[in-house]
Amino acid sequence: MKGQTIIVTGGSSGMGKAMASRFAQAGAQVVITGRTQEKLKEAQQEIETFEGQIVTVQMDVRQPQDAVRMVQEAVDAFGRIDALVNNAAGNFLCAAEDLSVNGWNAVINIVLNGTFYCSQAVGKHWIAAGAKGSILNMVATYAWDAGPGVIHSASAKAGVLAMTRTLAVEWGHKYGIRVNAIAPGMIERTGGAERLLASPDAAEELKQSIPLHRFGTPEEIAGLAAFLLSPDAAYINGACYTMDGGQSLHQTFL
Ligand code: HXC
Which PANTHER family would you find in this protein's record (predicted)? Predict the structure, then answer.
């Protein structure tokens, strides 16, 4: 990844920070974005211990003008963009009948709209520069499997999966831009695990229902992300890789 510039939205914690660290270890120039300056700076200090260079962009993916600024700051810092990881997400467990309009909009705006704003801003930069790049989106298996309490997130992630496939076809055909997705299961040390697991007992019960009897790690997700952005994945386009220890196949496991 030497010489490559990779933007990771929501890069100051969880899977985003693990991906940014992995890319920096592989020699990449990394741009991490997030809403909180303090968290960004902490992550920057941690990632700076690796080989690659890192800059931070404080922004909210819900604001289209922030996405445009993100691209400008990445180009100002490193002169090029090679990949975008749309990792920023928002989620909380809430029964569909209790979800407020603001709650619905908050998650749809972060996950679905934010992914589009960032993808379009980076895509327009590549198209204008005659450059090629790669986009990686984070979805969730409940986008197609379903699950209670996540109607906002599942609807948004299903949209992101449709966006992944649509852009893979449209921008792949016209510009050679690759767009892929990862569907993580429950990953330890992430905002998702914090928000979606009601208690330690619920976590233990869930682990027992997963064929591998454990949650995934942010580092394992980072390894798959690094592969999907590497030359070894040059012919992978429009794909969605599930990494959930076999959880979504549990009916065949029992
Ligand atoms: C019901 C809730 C709520 C909850 C917020 N809301 N939390 N409603 N139950 N637990 C409602 C609020 O009451 C408000 O509506 C509206 O949502 C917006 O809330 P705010 O706090 O004002 O929004 P904001 O500060 O913008 O925060 C957005 C957020 C927050 C999504 C609510 O959780 C956040 O910033 N999350 C970012 C990190 C994150 O969620 N990471 C996990 C991603 S995991 P009202 O009507 O009261 O105004 C993931 C995939 C996991 O996505 C897959 C695992 C398998």
Answer: PEROXISOMAL 2,4-DIENOYL-COA REDUCTASE, PEROXISOMAL 2,4-DIENOYL-COA REDUCTASE [(3E)-ENOYL-COA-PRODUCING]
